[in-house]
Amino acid sequence: MKLAGKVAVVTGGSRGIGAGICEELAAAGAAVAVNYTNQESEANAVVERLRGAGVPARAFRADVSKKNEVDRMMDDAAEAFGRIDILVNNAGICPFSDFFAIDEATWRRTIDVNLAGAFFCSQAAGRHMRRQGGGSIIHISTVTAFRGGPEQVHYAASKGGLNSLTSSMAVALGPYGIRTNAILCGGVPTDINRRQFANGVPAPKAKSRGVPAGRIGSPEDIGKAVVFLASDDSEWVTGAALAVDGGALVL
């Protein structure tokens, strides 16, 4: 129970990697605020699972690209749970598209959700952490920011910006006891990347010859890394980009 007594906010926590992160944080003892935008029933299902395990949890709706909604959500979460100790900026979109087919609206929406959204959430939650004397902010980034992707130019660019935001925030927020790190997520099959797999989304941890670890990732793999970065086990870790990718970056 490394996170007993802590309160975590997970953006995009209603499904996929976000839901896995919520469950791992709860298993470590944290109360969890599950953010969603449109997937209310899925968010409520996650909340019910966490509550069924004896963990305080609530769902909060907010479009992370809209600052006023983010500010309200963070204030509501702090009021409901008494504090905010951990923020996981997981919400993100990846509308796969040929380079020449990416229009202005798609480009701007991708940057707004993936990069501006993380900034708005960090700023709002960071104010609560500053008053409390510290906290941990974790951005869910991707190895694609380094490796690139033929239909992910806009997505990779937004995550590259997120990596830069990580290092800058570590410097800016360090004096307030707030650590900021990023997880470079590897191949975890979810609804967002179904098109990358020929036969739909494979089972988590299915065998794969594409990475040194020999299998694809699961939401729980990312969640366990989040728990490490949120806990005191990583108290001397900030500004880091931790690859949780089965070794994809070394290929």
From TrEMBL:
Gene3D superfamilies: NAD(P)-binding Rossmann-like Domain. InterPro entries: KR_dom (IPR057326), NAD(P)-bd_dom_sf (IPR036291), SDR_fam (IPR002347). It holds the Pfam family adh_short_C2. Keywords: NADP, Oxidoreductase, Rhamnose metabolism. It catalyses: L-rhamnofuranose + NAD(+) = L-rhamnono-1,4-lactone + NADH + H(+); L-rhamnofuranose + NADP(+) = L-rhamnono-1,4-lactone + NADPH + H(+). Its EC number is 1.1.1.378. Residues 6-192 form the Ketoreductase domain. One of its GO terms (molecular function) is L-rhamnose 1-dehydrogenase activity. Coiled coil: none annotated. Pathway: Carbohydrate degradation; L-rhamnose degradation. The keyword Magnesium does not apply. The keyword Oxidoreductase applies. It comes from the Bacteria. One of its GO terms (biological process) is rhamnose catabolic process. Belongs to the short-chain dehydrogenases/reductases (SDR) family. This is L-rhamnose 1-dehydrogenase (NAD(P)(+)). It comes from Paenibacillus antri.
